[in-house]
UniProtKB/TrEMBL annotation:
NCBIfam families: PRK09135.1
Keyword Membrane set for record: no
Molecular function in Gene Ontology: oxidoreductase activity
Keywords: Oxidoreductase
Protein name, UniProt field: Pteridine reductase
Organism superkingdom: Bacteria
Family: Belongs to the short-chain dehydrogenases/reductases (SDR) family.
Pfam families: adh_short_C2
Record flagged with keyword Oxidoreductase: yes
């Protein structure tokens, strides 16, 4: 089932962090098809970001731009915010999608890994919300944060990542209180949506990954992984079709979080 496009009388301006690939790019395409103008943030994926913006602009001129920033470096957040606001002079929706993810077993974890994961996954969204609060308040806009089902129950060997996503869940609820009534804040918590990219993996690693995927599928009541559209449509709903919803985090996980 696909949600019908929301009624957007004037193009809403949407900033999506980490929008060059995967879930971010799928969300950008979906919201653009609904009539939104898209600010495609990227860090290292310049070619993919520019290709996506070109694709969107070919469909509707002047409907997408790219803005680079290293979210782990707080000094770049001001420039990101200024460039985003200078494009159309307003902002209606902020989607905090960008995230760093890798294992950090306790005995091997470093302070640099702690700083990188926390700076990218929780510090950057917090201060980006701070920078963009006046514009979002003026537009009576909203914020949608990408959380994770591991914010509720940790992923083994990923303690720092899990901590950062638990912080993102609390950020969502805290800002929903602090920014009300002008700005709604909600979250989407994906489960198994896309398998990790593994083109360069060895045959042994691919076999092990396949075994893990099969084990994971057996834990999902719906017995399948989700799609990028599952996430994009939920973000669409929260941004444009749920005016009385704030402070909520929706699990998109096929029921896995019931007994994770």
């Amino acid at each position: 089932m696909t949600l019908s496009p929301p009624n957007i009388p004037k193009p809403a301006v949407v900033l999506i962090t980490g929008a060059a690939k995967r879930l971010g790019a799928a969300t950008a395409r979906h919201l653009h098809a609904c009539g939104c103008d898209i600010i495609v943030h990227y860090h290292q994926s310049q070619a993919a970001a520019e290709a996506l913006a070109a694709e969107l602009n070919a469909s509707r001129p002047d409907s997408a731009i790219t803005v680079p920033a290293n979210l782990a470096d707080s000094s770049e957040l001001t420039a990101l915010s200024e460039q985003a606001l200078n494009w159309k002079g307003k902002l209606d929706v902020l989607i905090n999608n960008a995230s760093a993810f890798y294992p950090t077993p306790l005995q091997e974890a470093t302070e640099a890994q702690w700083n990188h994961l926390l700076n990218t996954n929780i510090k950057a969204p917090f201060f980006l919300c701070q920078h963009l609060r006046p514009a979002l308040s003026k537009s009576q806009g909203c914020i949608v944060n990408l959380v994770d089902i591991y914010s509720q129950r940790p992923l083994n060997n990923h303690p720092i990542y899990s901590i950062s996503k638990a912080g993102m869940a609390m950020l969502t609820q805290s800002l929903a209180l602090e920014l009300a009534p002008d700005i709604r804040v909600n979250g989407v918590s994906p489960g198994a949506i896309l398998w990790p990219e593994s083109e360069s993996a060895t045959p042994e690693a691919k076999a092990a990954a396949h075994d893990y995927q099969q084990q994971l599928l057996r834990k999902i009541p719906l017995e399948r992984i989700g799609t990028e559209q599952d996430i994009a449509q939920t973000i669409q709903f929260l941004a444009f079709q749920a005016p009385y919803v704030s402070g909520q985090i929706i699990n998109i996980d096929g029921g896995r979080s019931i007994g994770i």
